[in-house]
Amino acid sequence: MSAPPEVPEIVSRAFDGARRAGYVSFCRNETGRLLATLAATRTGTLAEFGTGCGVGTAWLRSGVTDDARIVTAELEPRLARAAAEIFADDPLVDVVAADWSTLLDRGPFSLLFLDSGDPSAARVDAVADLVEDGGIVVVDDVEPCAIWPPVSYGRVDPLREEWLTDERFTAVEVMVAPDAAAIVATRRPGV
Q1: Which of 132, 113, 131 is nearest to 55 (CA)?
Q2: Which of 60, 71, 126, 163 is the most exposed place for a label (fewest CB within 10 A)?
């Protein structure tokens, strides 16, 4: 059996920063590898709502090419400072210490990673117009569900149902680990 793939150096630095800050709620490696893969296909501006200490941002950065840039927003100033330190010398990453809504005028985005913990930031109607035609949205921290309609904690999960049925997007729930899923949605052109 082979060892798991190495974690990119920028991601290791972000993990170290999160530990120093005492922050334990960060992007999982499984989701991170998905983000890096998707970022490698994008040009233009990628965005993240909910930076934390920058682990998800680091995964995006590990995949992004030089013809793209990343802007990420974190509401808590202490966490935003920790993330900004990691990317201080990186001209492709801009860490903003503010609510996700401050990025509304920076779109449209070619990839949008929703990891803010603010359910309103993950609603389709809140972000649909922020994504360019053919752009990708990744909604993190989705509890896996094997039935339809989608049920979470014994009740219908409206967020999952929104993303999987909205006519503006083609979407799929992707299992990233036995206990974790993400929704990946692509904006349909002209819809």
Answers
A1: 113
A2: 126
For residue 18, pLDDT beyond 90: no
CATH of residue 152's domain is 3.40.50.150
User: Mean per-residue pLDDT for 130-148?
Assistant: 86
Looking at the structure of the chain, the number of domains it has is 1
The residues, any chain, with a CB within 8 Å of residue 48's CB and separated by 6 or more, are 56, 57, 60, 70, 71, 72, 73, 112, 113, 115
pTM of the prediction? Answer: 0.88
At 141, which helix (H) or strand (E)? strand 131-142
- Tokens encoding 44: 């233009």
Compute, in degrees rounded to 10, the torsion defined by CA atoms 25, 28, 31, 33: 130
d(CA 162, CA 165): 6
Determine what percent of the chain is predicted with pLDDT higher than 90: 51
